[in-house]
Amino acid sequence: MTKDVRVGLVGLGRMGRFHAANLAGRIPGAHLVRIVDANEKVARENSERLGGVDWSTEYGDLLEDDRIEAVIVASPTPLHADMAEAAARAGKHVFCEKPISLELSRTYEVIETVRSSGVKLQAGFHRRFDPDYRTAREKISAGEVGDIYLFRTSLRDMRSPGFEFLKGSGGFFADVTLHDFDTARWMIGEIEEVTAFGAALSDPGFEEIGDIDNAVVVLRFATGALGVIDNSRVAGYGYECSSEIMGSRATLRIGNHRRVAVQTLTPDRVCQDYVSDFVERFAGAYRSEIEHFIRVVREDLEPEVGGADDAAALALSQAAARSYREGRTVRPESGIKDGAVFYEVRK
Amino acid sequence: MTKDVRVGLVGLGRMGRFHAANLAGRIPGAHLVRIVDANEKVARENSERLGGVDWSTEYGDLLEDDRIEAVIVASPTPLHADMAEAAARAGKHVFCEKPISLELSRTYEVIETVRSSGVKLQAGFHRRFDPDYRTAREKISAGEVGDIYLFRTSLRDMRSPGFEFLKGSGGFFADVTLHDFDTARWMIGEIEEVTAFGAALSDPGFEEIGDIDNAVVVLRFATGALGVIDNSRVAGYGYECSSEIMGSRATLRIGNHRRVAVQTLTPDRVCQDYVSDFVERFAGAYRSEIEHFIRVVREDLEPEVGGADDAAALALSQAAARSYREGRTVRPESGIKDGAVFYEVRK
Amino acid sequence: MTKDVRVGLVGLGRMGRFHAANLAGRIPGAHLVRIVDANEKVARENSERLGGVDWSTEYGDLLEDDRIEAVIVASPTPLHADMAEAAARAGKHVFCEKPISLELSRTYEVIETVRSSGVKLQAGFHRRFDPDYRTAREKISAGEVGDIYLFRTSLRDMRSPGFEFLKGSGGFFADVTLHDFDTARWMIGEIEEVTAFGAALSDPGFEEIGDIDNAVVVLRFATGALGVIDNSRVAGYGYECSSEIMGSRATLRIGNHRRVAVQTLTPDRVCQDYVSDFVERFAGAYRSEIEHFIRVVREDLEPEVGGADDAAALALSQAAARSYREGRTVRPESGIKDGAVFYEVRK
Amino acid sequence: MTKDVRVGLVGLGRMGRFHAANLAGRIPGAHLVRIVDANEKVARENSERLGGVDWSTEYGDLLEDDRIEAVIVASPTPLHADMAEAAARAGKHVFCEKPISLELSRTYEVIETVRSSGVKLQAGFHRRFDPDYRTAREKISAGEVGDIYLFRTSLRDMRSPGFEFLKGSGGFFADVTLHDFDTARWMIGEIEEVTAFGAALSDPGFEEIGDIDNAVVVLRFATGALGVIDNSRVAGYGYECSSEIMGSRATLRIGNHRRVAVQTLTPDRVCQDYVSDFVERFAGAYRSEIEHFIRVVREDLEPEVGGADDAAALALSQAAARSYREGRTVRPESGIKDGAVFYEVRK
After folding, report:
1. Which segments constitute the GFO/IDH/MocA-like oxidoreductase domain (chains A, B, C, D) (predicted)?
2. Is the pLDDT of residue C1 over 50?
3. pLDDT tens digits, residue range B126-158?
4. Domain limits, chain B
5. Burial bucket for residue D262 (CB in 10 Å: 0-12, 13-18, 19+)
6. Taking 60 as the threshold, does the pLDDT of residue A33 lie above it?
7. Which pLDDT score, from 0 to 100, does residue A347 have?
8. Which of A264, B55, D48, D314 has its CA 20 to 30 A from that of D223?
9. Residue D347 binned pLDDT confidence (cut-offs 50, 70, 90)
């Protein structure tokens, strides 16, 4: 009987709890042996909820736990890089929530540490494991869409997190648009131009902290195709992650995500529910990305999305931030280094 | 320049007013020259609304109006047969709302009078002119559906008319299901078995007048295919006229009729409007059936739906009524007489 | 740490394999310790696929395995009753695929054995655990639908199983309609009248074995509400399990089940995929029913759907079969015995 | 009886023929008395098709026809301004297809001539008369949407017109995006910033004539709200005119335009048709805009969309063209002059 991959997890916020619940009985081949959170109450209560898994408040306990082969880093963003590096140095494979760091140079250091430690590094771009997006990408790869003319995508939260969170989030483009940059690259290809527009419309607090709550980002891909991203922190009606790919042979649309396939008809109208947040929308994708990570570890595979992808998305989000700040189109340079893509924003 | 067909219309209830408004400027080749309603105020006010067309309270005025070549009979059902016959005898072509009569023998007399008068008779089965139903029927005729296994159809009103109306309506199956019998025959073919189920659920008043407010009717077609009709007077949410045809090669669905293609998303749900009555749902079909009638008159064509179809639908509704009353399946006999279908319910 | 429920499973056909895969790592709190199939190759290969779980070709091995607390009976229908009884006698809780038996008296014997053995018995009516159906039922219970006028449901397979399977299936109504009877009772309430119509349309083989491939069944509920079931073995386009509940306050619709939320637009049309079989449509519900069973065992609960429900659905399917055979409405009697519903078809 | 408005029409291209067919019997209160086209065959054949209406090859015949009170100018764009002015000078009311001119100063001259002639001028922005767009706008006006954050709209043709047409079209932004500028202003409000992106992707011929086939235009409204327009000449799958308005209280979506409400289910998929061109999509809106024009003339009203709106849309399309050419955001100035909006692009 093949042995289960023994996993430790750090950070019991919303994503961390979700990954932990999956690892405790819903992902074949995985065995969650330790959870860590700086808040003792949180750590202990989650341990109980998960049937008594070992818990600590110190990340060091996890690093020293010799049973653990792989670590899920789901702590706040500023801790990602150090924790990922420490895990790698301890010889443990790493799944790290995005972004690895808000500084590109630091991301590259982590990538280098991981490489020299000989462990795996998977970045938390869950959309790559969503059945809708995978189906669409397969159709593109199979030539069903033909030449691509336009990529259009929306990522919108129902409500904004609090301003305290936002201050440490790295700004709108690093916190929200980052996901769309990864999806754009993955589905369509590399990006040559980024022009970003933003507005603070729902609350003066956004302007006070120098941030925005709505944005539009226009892309030009290396193929010449156009791209449009729209993002919002305050969509109000629900959570939106939908896309359209218009091509010479076909156009694909991903969207209309509902919780259940139930319509309610009352006088003069028919209604359906709508997903309200990312965990609801992407429950399956979050499970699949961890399943993938377990398989990567067990079968010694390359993860489908790794450090270089995280760095590329971060670089593009920095290009967007600069474009917005300077009111002009930014043209990042990109290339291949050590077999992986890299992006650089010089001017 | 081809001369317009000069039309008279009798009966300014809801359907009559709708036809009149179409005839007064929305149907090329038609010229509405006189409207008649027993209620003087109704007649006069509609004349004003229609830009001053001649009006009467006497049907005789219409019959004697030599300009008039064609008559729209939109009066209450009990008057249909006499008015249609009188028009035919006056040499005028007839469009008659369904049913021509609630008595089958009387319907056949009208058909005979029309034939001997050499005029046209079109029956008001508007669904035959609805683009959705026509498209579906074309697909069936083209073999796209293959052998048909099941025909399923719903006809439901949002709210019931008042009990006064219902008492003179000929009963549920003649007033509501009649349309579905015509559609079933037109789309699928002749019917060999009728089994009807009914219930009075929304108001004790239905039982008091010996009527029902909801029904299910099961059909067996001559081909062996099964059919299911469901009807309601009290659907509540809106007006429904939807159908499904399941076949060996494809299944067709007609439904989800909305007024406008606008979705409204509010927290956690997405809504669309829904049609609320037959005029809203079938505005185009009502116009098209009159356009067809005008063309029938102008170009000396056979109407796509005539007296024999009206008689067949009536006979089938009588079979349903008897089935419901006697709690058993009824098998009407049918055949071809004088080139037209006829149905008879013997046992 | 709460101990996992140790489960044995017998029958590695399609459903058995699906349950086994879930039990091996996707259902928290469950531990699959033995699988059994009469076919050695099947048993051995599935063991390998599941990471080396113990396997046997003899059901007795499972009964004698003291580790096992609970048994999943997923063998062919004729074996259900004996295997369920044997498990109960061995003191093991039982999850039994539907129907427990094709003979009502035998079903009641099994229920009695289970009761006297003091173990749990859950019947495999997975639809009770489907989020769509649960949501709809909650809305009904909460009064959102008001008084119910019509329950309409479709259960259709894309393609028929082979005639060999069909001969042992207990006939169309026991094999297909059974599920709809359970859903009808669960969502709307007890049933007083059953009238069944059937046809063999796609292949003469159905008539040869005395069976049908399409059916319509009309119900009358104790409340007076009407019900319509349509079933097919040969829907062709895909797998359908959709329903409509029309009430005085609202109408609910469950349906339009797609695999992924991707639309493909090509010249003049827009397409979506459609589920093609029950495992695809109900993957979540199959997992949830087993999760429920594990919870029932762990927490000593009553299963949401037990032996009496299985017996009721079987009795109703027998009423349908008799109605179809005799061409008339059948009125089963029902009541409460020992705190559970029972149905009887006398005439 | 109110007298019909007697109308002349010049230009029997696709739009002209469509308007003429409506005026000949589908628009109450209108009487088409003369059609003009430089091509004798076209003029004569259309006269025949319309039942023998008078026809000419000379526009002067129309101007001198004293019966004619109102003119529909549906000739090629370069002729609009002169013909509109001539009609106004002849004392005839003018409905002019958009744009009145490709030169803003010339548009203002026409507006001035119309004003001094005391006749009406309606511009051909049909979308203002589409029930979907009107419904959405009413919801916005009623406050149902709250503060607007994002306006997103797509206008796409299935196939491009030929390069000969394109050369005289005034360029992509004047020929295609113009409509969206009008809709944006009408639904959301005045526009302060325009940033345009374009690409020639489907055929090298676009680049050869210095034009593009796909574009994205980002707007910033005076309220601060963001806007995104995407346009294509080569969408391939069909004709698209859909929009989304995201606001603080609700989000509205207009789209999914189908010809008929028929779904076709074949193995593993469900398909619907899709509109393929503007006449199909906007048949009702084209009729309504002419109905509105007739009412404007009959009842001496101000048209809902006039010369100043045409000029504003043209100015914004010029801003887009300059933005695209110069690779930067353009900020047109706008204000109110003589009670009407005006836009100016200085820098």
Report:
1. 133-253
2. no
3. 999 999 999 999 999 999 999 999 999 999 999
4. 5-119, 128-280+308-344
5. buried
6. yes
7. 66
8. D314
9. low
Q: Is C142 on the interface with A (CB under 8 A)?
A: no
Give the closest-approach CA distance of B246 to chain D in angstroms. 9
Chain C nearest-CA distance from B149, in A, is 7
B272–A contact, CB cutoff 8 A: yes
With 70 as the cut, is the pLDDT of residue D29 above it?
A: yes
Q: What is the pLDDT of residue C338?
A: 83
Q: In chain C, whose CA is at the least distance from the CA of A265?
A: C251
Instruction: Report percent pLDDT > 90 for chain D.
Output: 95
Does residue D139 sit at the A interface (CB-CB below 8 Å)? no
* Window 149-208 of A, Cβ < 8 Å to D: 149-150, 152, 156, 195, 197-199, 201-202
CB within 8 Å: C261 and A251: no
Q: Examine the pLDDT at B1 and tell me if it is beyond 60.
A: no
Inter-chain residue contact D265 with B254, CB threshold 8 Å: no
Chain segment D93-105, per-residue pLDDT in tens: 999 999 999 999 9
| Res. D52 pLDDT band, cuts 50 70 90 | very high
In B317-336, the residues whose Cβ lies within 8 Å of chain C are 327-329
Neighbours of chain A (3+ CB pairs under 8 A): B, C, D
What's the rounded Cα separation, in Å, for the pair C169 and C206? Answer: 13
Look-up: residue for tokens 């690892």?
A23
For residue A316, the SS3 value is: helix
Check C238 against D273: CB less than 8 A apart: no
Rounded to a whole number of angstroms, the distance from the CA of D318 to the nearest CA of chain C is 32
- CATH 3.40.50.300 assigned to domain C128-281+307-344? The reply is no
Return the number of other C-beta atoms located less than 10 Å from residue A4's C-beta.
Answer: 18
Asked if B271's CB is within 8 angstroms of A238's CB, the reply is no
Strands (E), chain A: 5-10, 30-36, 54-56, 70-73, 93-96, 121-123, 148-156, 191-199, 214-221, 226-232, 240-247, 251-254, 262-266, 269-273, 333-337, 340-344
Question: Nearest-CA distance from B33 to chain C in Å?
Answer: 42
Distance from CA of C85 to the nearest CA of B (A): 41
> For residues D170 and B271, what is the distance between their CA atoms, to the nearest angstrom?
40
**ipTM score assigned to the predicted complex:** 0.96
Give the pLDDT band (50/70/90) at residue C3. Answer: confident
Report d(CA A111, CA B81) in Å as an integer.
88
Tokens of A148: 């691509």
Contact criterion met (CB < 8 Å) for C265 and D276:
no
* Beta carbons of A26 and A47 less than 8 angstroms apart: no
Distance, in Å, from the CA atom of D14 to the CA atom of D20, rounded to the nearest integer, reads: 10
* Contact predicate C88/C119, CB 8 Å: yes
CATH architecture of the domain covering B128-280+308-344: 2-Layer Sandwich (3.30)
Tell me the chain D residues in contact with residue A214 when contact means C-beta distances shorter than 8 Å.
149-150, 226
| Cβ C113 vs Cβ C265: under 8 Å | no
Give the CATH H-level superfamily of domain A128-278+307-344.
Dihydrodipicolinate Reductase; domain 2 (3.30.360.10)
Distance, in Å, from the CA atom of A83 to the CA atom of D66, rounded to the nearest integer, reads: 87
Contact call for B262 and D251, based on CB within 8 A: no
Please judge whether B24 and D28 are an interchain contact, meaning their C-beta atoms are less than 8 angstroms apart: yes
First and final CA of chain A: distance in angstroms?
56
Chain C residue with minimal CA distance to A248? Answer: C266
Over pLDDT 70: what percentage of chain D? 99
The correct CATH number of A5-119 out of 3.40.50.720, 2.60.40.10, 3.40.640.10, 3.40.50.2300 is 3.40.50.720
**Which residues of chain D lie closer than 8 angstroms to C159, CB-CB?**
none
Q: What angle do CA A332, A336, A338 make, to 5 degrees?
A: 135
